[in-house]
Design goal:
SPW repeat-containing protein; 121 residues; transmembrane helix; SPW; transmembrane; 0% strand; membrane
Length: 121
């Protein structure tokens, strides 16, 4: 039995990544931390990058987009502590949740995308 990620599922993953990226991008305004330079700047930059990469993957899938989104997702998860805004609960949680969603979906897409068998046994 081979596993592969169907076009419909890959599209759903990319749409979920677009939503997560937009959520992170817009979060400084709707969660009220736009005045916090590090938190808001990171949310705008990483959210925009996640969104653009996911949109690109919708039109022409390449493994590079998934690797880039995985890296951005992992960065979003650790950014609150690295950039020092972990005490801002709203900013910290939106980064962690959006980062995990994007990183996990990118990881599943990468794992499933090359038709490896489930087991070598």
């Amino acid at each position: 039995m081979l596993k592969s990620l169907s076009l419909d599922r890959r599209t759903a993953f990319d749409i979920a990544n677009v939503v997560a990226g937009l959520g992170l991008l817009l979060s400084p305004w709707y969660l009220g931390f736009a005045a916090e330079t590090a938190a808001a700047g990171n949310a705008w930059l990483i959210g925009a990058a996640m969104t653009l990469i996911a949109l690109a993957a919708l039109f022409a899938f390449h493994r590079l987009e998934e690797w880039a989104n995985a890296a951005l997702g992992l960065w979003a998860v650790i950014a609150p502590w690295v950039l020092g805004f972990a005490t801002l609960a709203a900013a910290m949680w939106v980064h962690v949740i959006a980062g995990l969603v994007v990183a996990i979906l990118a990881g599943v897409s990468l794992w499933s995308g090359d038709d490896r068998p489930y087991s070598t046994a």
